[in-house]
Amino acid sequence: MAAKPFLLLSIRTEERAALDEHAAFARFLGVPIEEVRRFELGTSPLPDVDLDAWAGIILGGGAYNASDPEESKPDAQVQAEQDLARLLDDVVARDFPFLGACYGIGTVGRHQGAVVDRSWPEPVGPVSVELTDEGAVDPLFAGLPPAFTAYGGHKEAISRLPDHAVALATSAAAPVQAFRVGSNVYATQFHPELDLGGILTRIAVYAHHGYFDPSEQDVLGAAAAAVTVVHPMTILRNFAARCRQGDGQPDAMQS
């Protein structure tokens, strides 16, 4: 029987960044890119998703912010958010394997009642992450050291989680770097799919999207190159292995 594919939900309309994100997720999940099916949210309505057809679902990052004022959101973002809210209703009810990165943490957080605001922005580049006690024993973070460096960069973050969510990672710059709902629905503020090549691509593509002054590109690139980022990708390998262990069924993700 053929392995079930992964569904990658993308909000990136910038082709270079979108293709790089797709390739990176496949590479660090450890599966052929053909087994990661990408759907671009906002360009057309998301069809009904039969969860049983997928090994797991991933939501990547991009230029949207869950905390953007409603009146300022373009139609594509409104459509994407409506589709994601509907999908997350089903994902959370089923406790289905889901991993949201960057924009994903705000989206899942907002869906679950977290406070998502502009209190804890981080510049594009290296991020120091520490696992909480719960994160240290969480199966998705198995094999990671208690503290590690990742790449990130965001305008919004979660400043308060709801009581039923489990905080898995934190940092001085942003109090919620990762959390879990139930046993299988995860989100990270940092990007587990980003290596040096990936962050340099994002810096180039999003130089004029308000994350930093365009004149800072070289400085940000040098700061990114000055660190070694190898641990966050383990999260994706763990996610893929656990999804595939049970052919995508939620019971395979139980700790």
TrEMBL record:
Q: Which UniProt keywords apply?
A: Glutamine amidotransferase, Transferase
Query: What InterPro entries does the database record attribute to this sequence?
Result: ChyE-like (IPR044992), Class_I_gatase-like (IPR029062), GATASE (IPR017926)
Q: Which species is this record about?
A: Nocardioides silvaticus
Q: What is this protein called?
A: Glutamine amidotransferase
A GO MF term = transferase activity
Q: Where is the Glutamine amidotransferase domain?
A: 54-196
Query: The organism sits in which domain of life?
Result: Bacteria
Q: Which GO terms describe its cellular component?
A: cytosol
Whether Repeat counts among this entry's keywords is no
Which PROSITE patterns does the entry link to? Answer: GATASE_TYPE_1
